[in-house]
Design brief:
Strand 4 (92-93) and strand 5 (96-101) form a beta hairpin. The chain is built from seven helices and five strands. It is globular, with a radius of gyration of 18 Å. Helix 1 (25-38) packs across helix 7 (164-175). The longest helix has 14 residues, at 25-38. The model has no long low-confidence stretch (mean pLDDT 90). The protein has 178 residues and is an alpha/beta fold. The chain has one domain (16-175).
Length: 178
Amino acid sequence: MSRTDPHKKKPRSPQRTLLIVCEGYTEHAFVRHLKETYFSRSNGHIAVQNAYGGDPSSIIKKAEKILASQAFDRCLLVFDSDRIGKTKIPEKVCRTTVKSIIPRPCIENLFLRVLNSKSIPRTTDLCKKEFDTKHLKKHKKTEPATYAILFPETLLEKKRGAITELDQLILIIQNCGW
């Protein structure tokens, strides 16, 4: 309400907006779980999009396509490090600040670290195989609800101090940016 006119509403302040573009179905489902767990709508708006696989350049192209038609304050790219090669991640795309979180060598490695696996493989293929066989069947990896069961908030909070990528991802989602 305005002081001069009690019926006039104050202008709303603009909300922060964040676009998160994920490499594939697994990253997309996990980030959606983190958004449901840690994001409050009063902080702004977060859109989580799937790039449907590929290398970092195709993920950047997907972000460019979305940012060309929609306005976001920030853009976060989430992809595995196994295909980076010589791809340079831009600092800005369509006047939007870009940041990336790159679990090494893959998102499944991050999952295994959270779950305290005794021996964590160093290659992407072995990490994916171990996670698929021991923790989550391949056909369930695309459902955010399965990550809610496997990674409850109490476990994530306990592990985020020791796992940098997880902590960064949660902080960005909580604050709707960086």
